[in-house]
Amino acid sequence: MAKLHGGMGFKDLTAFNLAMLGKQGWKLLTEPDSLVSRIFKAGYFPSGTYLTAQLGHNPSYVWRSILRAHIVVRGGSCWCIGSGESIPLLDAPWLHDGRCIDSRIPGAQYMQGLTVAHFLQPDSKCWNSQLVQQVFSADIAADILHTSVVEQVQ
Fold first, then answer.
1. Domain spans of the chain?
2. How much is the pTM?
């Protein structure tokens, strides 16, 4: 509580701690070649990313803490679509407003393992609108078609 309101002037330490843990989670996501990222990846998410990581069997205190901030990092992150090859189609925040296509939608079992690239035109940076409209419901198709595809940066 602020000194002005009779408190001692301390910050909300829980929120501050969660923000610092979120910063570490963001580093695991954006700096995958760092030593720390490679160690955590090998131990806790060998075939995924920090955003798809689970608690796992017998996790360390540090991993439990960093994973607690998972919701903060996921809530503030969004994919920028280039080739779409590394972006999972389901449960990843890649739509224009940062939302995901939920893996509980009808027919999702047939889309497991697909990436965003499967719905892009092969030699252009455009959606295959016919395929998108054929596979998804009208509202999801509209969200996909309103999502921008950018040129890849080297």
1. 12-75, 78-154
2. 0.59
